[in-house]
Write a structure and sequence with these properties.
about 400 residues, alpha/beta, VC0802-like, Rossmann fold, 2 domains, 8-stranded mixed sheet, 15 strands, about 30% helix, RNA-binding, rRNA (guanine-N2-)-methyltransferase activity, methyltransferase
């Protein structure tokens, strides 16, 4: 297709493979994994679809120019030389987001300033007037990325980060980022083919993302808007078609998604957020202390949760993590239990051997997503049964 162009989807560390799989499933071509990003090709409709549907992307940017750059003045000249009228008019607003990874260029704010000056001066010199900067809600978001001496200029098609899905109005003290929650669920192999439990559900993010995966609901269907909707070439009819066709691909879900939290305020917040996402038909939230529960459902149970870290919440780590292990051992046979923690020494208190450990980051905290397989009956009994047959 002649109207395909290159795009870059940014993501969290460790999610590159998940994101490239999502992109291929959506129909992207030339998918290439980088570090915290995946590049791909598609047309304008695909750019809309990527923003709407990708669960593990933080931003979708569209590169428009790249060049080698020696110093700040060289950057100014090369930005000035570009034809900005293709993307921006004097009556519109813009903002610059700069990322630098270079010995030569060390200050991203200064790079933003230099880029802004070059664009403003170019318009002033050719039109006698200039577009304004609007950091909060610009018509055009420009992304500058400098790595060593290579500069890439891109347009940000997403706007604010894609983890802001639009359903979460109520949060607790330590809410999990929606992209992180979705990625953890996908890493855990959650596919909607069993019952699901988040036993420490907080404001319900893991539950909501689990339901959207199970029903194949586009991740950002509840979002207020995307940056590309303000672009001069925005095709509203095409975007409507993309939304309609994505919603036609949703599927029914025949199991239960359940959340527990012992704080009444958390239960209320979770219920509000789930209602905002229009998923109350699929998710039940109950006020329960996980350590006083046992598995209620027949068949296999998939559990995924984000226990308190001891970073922002004050807990006795040794007792807390050993209680997780005891509760799983005694009350949850036939369960694949996954949770994330940044407190790696605390894992030894669980008293169970994890069958998987995956390195991920929760914000700046290096963490592990761990899996504990709880068998029906004991492992020993299972082994004896197999040898007797």
């Amino acid at each position: 297709m002649g109207n395909n162009f290159k795009m870059v989807a940014k993501t969290l560390f460790g999610f590159e493979e998940l994101l490239s799989k999502e992109l291929r499933n959506l129909g992207a071509s030339n998918v290439v994994e980088g570090t915290r990003n995946v590049s791909f090709e598609g047309d304008t409709g695909f750019m809309y679809k990527a923003n709407l549907c990708l669960r593990t992307a933080i931003k979708i940017i569209k590169p428009i120019h790249s060049f080698r750059v020696r110093d700040e003045n060289d950057l100014y000249k090369k930005i000035y030389a570009m034809d900005w009228t293709e993307h921006l008019s004097v009556s519109e607003t813009f903002s610059i987001d700069a990322t630098v990874n270079s010995e030569q260029f060390t200050h991203s704010l200064y790079i933003s300033q230099k880029t802004k000056d070059a664009i403003v001066d170019k318009f002033r010199d050719t039109d006698g007037t200039r577009p304004d900067v609007d950091v909060k809600d610009p018509d055009l978001r420009i992304n500058i990325h400098i790595h060593n001496n290579d500069c890439n200029v891109s347009l940000d098609s997403s706007g604010y980060s894609l983890h802001k899905r639009g359903y979460r109005t109520a949060t607790n003290i330590a809410p999990i980022n929606e992209v992180l929650a979705s990625g953890l669920l996908l890493l855990s192999g959650w596919d909607g083919q069993s019952d699901f439990l988040d036993p420490m559900c907080g404001s319900g993010t893991m539950l909501t993302e689990a339901a959207m995966i199970a029903c194949n609901i586009p991740a950002n269907i509840n979002r207020k808007g995307f940056a590309f909707e303000k672009w001069s070439d925005f095709d509203a009819d095409l975007f409507e078609k993309i939304i309609d066709s994505s919603l036609k691909k949703t599927r029914e879900f025949h199991y239960k998604i359940i959340g527990y939290d012992k704080a009444p305020s958390a239960v209320r917040k979770a219920q509000d957020n789930i209602e905002n996402a229009n998923l109350e038909d699929y998710i039940t939230v109950e006020r329960k202390d996980f350590f006083k529960t046992e598995k209620e459902s027949e068949g296999q149970l998939h559990m995924c949760f984000n226990p308190p870290y001891g970073e922002r919440l004050d807990i006795d780590l040794e007792n807390f993590y050993s209680a997780i292990g005891d509760t799983l051992k005694q009350g949850y046979p036939g369960t694949n239990a996954w949770f994330i923690t940044s407190n790696l020494p605390a894992l030894k208190f669980v008293g169970l051997r994890p069958s998987r450990k995956i390195k991920v980051f929760n914000s700046h905290l290096e963490s592990r997503l761990v899996k504990y397989e709880m068998y029906e009956g004991s492992k020993k009994a299972k082994y004896q049964k197999n040898t007797e047959e």
